[in-house]
Amino acid sequence: MTASDWKNYFNQLNAKPAVKAKFIKHCKPKERTMGVAAKKCEKCGRFGAHISSYGIGLCRHCFREMATEIGFQKYS
Questions:
Q1: pLDDT digit of tens for each residue in the chain (76 aa)?
Q2: For residues 67 and 54, what is the distance between their CA atoms, to the nearest angstrom?
Q3: Can you give the residue range of the structural domain that contains 62?
Q4: In the chain, how many domains are there?
């Protein structure tokens, strides 16, 4: 189980509130302060290849799609 998909387990546990509370207490991954899983793309939610320059907060894939809309120009 990775940090990105632990919330998917709630679909099964919503019917069992006691088991859900125990799961959250013991099995939830800690909040990341550094590393790959610390930042997510604001548009698609990817973890890797994150561009945080200028406060953009996008992955490289979404940045390429939105670069001209944001105001960046491609040279050469």
A1: 455 566 677 777 888 889 888 888 888 777 778 887 788 888 998 888 888 888 888 999 999 999 999 899 888 7
A2: 13
A3: 38-76
A4: 2
**Cβ neighbours for 63, distance < 8 A, ≥ 6 positions apart:** 51, 56
Q: Are residues 42 and 66 in the same domain?
A: yes
Are residue 23 and residue 44 in the same domain, yes or no? Answer: no
- Taking a C-beta distance cutoff of 8 angstroms, is the pair 66, 51 a contact? no
- Give SS3 for 58: strand
- Of 48, 43, 45, nearest to 67 by C-alpha is 43
